[in-house]
Design brief:
rod-shaped; 3 domains; coiled coil; transmembrane; membrane; 450 residues; mainly alpha; transmembrane helix
């Protein structure tokens, strides 16, 4: 039973040898084709130079992969020592790493390079969207101060009107120094309010332009067709969007509000009291001092609010960096694990066949060790062994005299092998090689006895 199982395994190894070579050739060719497609994405130069360089590189990869795994399939299953197996396993690991370095990542680039570039474009769109929204929020943050500025402007205007009509502040009606001061403060507040409103319109216009650029960029990410033209157009849109974001950052009126707040207190110039009576002049001075205190408080509040706006982190200028498919598939490797698995499997699948052959040859050796020597020798080997033994006996010694018993031996026995087949009596069995060899062996032994 063991001999039959061992023989069947040996026959199986012989039967799959052609298939093994064919499989190695197909896998090496497939890896070379995808390596060619991936190599073209990273080479620069004229189309002709890129074509020949990619062909030569992919052909070298195919030959190298086929030769490496063919050598391993030939030698590894027959190495039985632990040291030899360990050395070949180390060589196999180094070779597999080199194959992945020169071929697998290019195969992955050919399989998922376009998708990786689209992933890069998609994430860039998200980053630019976040930058645009943050710049828009920073630019509109000053709008939150608009109600306070409007209330201060209205309060100064109302006080001026009341003072002009009823003299509620100084007790004397008319447009005197107090009315002029209050009107001046109201005008400054209205001027600041107008600048904030103007910036809001500009910010809204820039934000609309940025949204249109983002829509174009999103359409380029999901559009069909080759990825290279889309990536080039995407880069142009990214440059334009970067300019819009920079303009939004520069249109913020927070610095202007901070300067206006300083001007309210530091640049306060009270007019000279124009009252005709000393008592009226005294009242005007008191009211103007109160207005000065109110303006200082308003200036302090505006300065604090402006400082909070200026303390916001600014939007850093983002520079779009294009990626080649081979570079993108490495950068976003975790997003394309199936493509990487397929690319690596093409290159390392022959290693599975090598281990299968090693297991089968190991089983054959274990079964052969359990067999007796007589069960392992073939008929051809037995015949050759007998011929060698006969030649050795013939040359070892020549008898000086022929024994009488040998001389008197029947001629039929001595000439049994020389009788032609057609001269044999009918019904006599044809002698086979084994019988002839046994007869010769008996004659040789009889000569040795003499």
């Amino acid at each position: 039973m063991a001999l039959g199982a061992s023989r069947r395994l040996q026959d199986g190894v012989i039967a799959v040898e052609t298939m093994t070579r064919f499989a190695l050739a197909v896998l090496a060719l497939a890896s070379g084709v995808y390596t060619y497609l991936g190599a073209r994405t990273i080479l620069d130069g004229s189309p002709t130079a890129v074509f020949f360089a990619a062909v030569i590189y992919s052909a070298s990869v195919s030959v190298g992969i086929y030769a490496f795994w063919f050598y391993m399939a030939r030698f590894y299953p027959h190495v039985t020592s632990r040291t030899g197996r360990g050395a070949l396993l180390l060589v196999m690991a180094v070779g597999a790493a080199m194959i992945m370095a020169m071929s697998s990542w290019l195969n992955a680039a050919a399989l998922a390079g376009s998708a990786a570039v689209e992933q890069h474009l998609s994430e860039s769109v998200e980053d630019y969207t976040a930058d645009l929204n943050r710049a828009h929020q920073n630019a509109l943050a000053a709008q939150s101060l608009l109600p306070d500025i409007q209330r201060a402007s209205e309060r100064f205007a109302q006080l001026a009107g009341v003072e002009r009509q009823a003299g509620s502040l100084t007790g004397t009606t008319g447009s005197g120094s107090v009315v002029q001061l209050l009107s001046q403060m109201s005008a400054q507040m209205k001027s600041l309010e107008a600048s904030i409103n103007a910036s809001r319109d500009q910010v809204t216009d820039l934000f609309e332009q940025g949204k249109k650029r983002l829509e174009t960029m999103r359409s380029l990410v999901s559009a069909p067709g080759l990825i290279d033209p889309r990536a080039d157009q995407f880069s142009n849109e990214a440059v334009a969007l970067t300019g819009i974001i920079t303009s939004l950052t520069q249109t913020s009126v927070a610095p202007s509000i901070r300067r206006a707040a300083d001007d309210l207190s530091l640049g306060f110039i009270a007019p000279v009291p124009d009252g005709g009576l000393p008592d009226l002049v005294n009242r005007q001075n008191q009211v103007m001092e109160t207005v000065r205190s109110s303006v200082a408080a308003q200036s302090k509040a505006l300065a604090k609010a402006a400082d909070e706006l200026l303390a916001r982190p600014p939007v850093q200028e983002r520079r779009f960096v294009p990626m080649a498919p081979a570079e993108a598939v490495l950068h976003y490797a975790s997003e394309f694990i199936p493509a990487w698995a397929g690319a690596i499997s093409i290159d390392l699948l022959p290693g599975v066949m090598v281990f299968i052959l090693a297991v089968v040859h190991g089983a054959i050796r274990r079964q052969d060790e359990k067999l007796a020597f007589a069960d392992t020798i073939t008929a051809g080997e037995l015949l050759r062994a007998l011929e060698v033994q006969r030649a050795i006996n013939a040359t070892s010694s020549v008898p000086e005299r022929v024994p009488t018993a040998a001389a008197e031996a029947p001629d039929e026995e001595r000439q049994e092998q020389d009788v032609p087949l057609e001269e044999r009596p009918a019904g006599e069995p044809e002698p086979n090689n084994i019988t002839s060899l046994e007869a010769r062996s008996r004659r040789d032994r009889s000569h040795e006895d003499w």
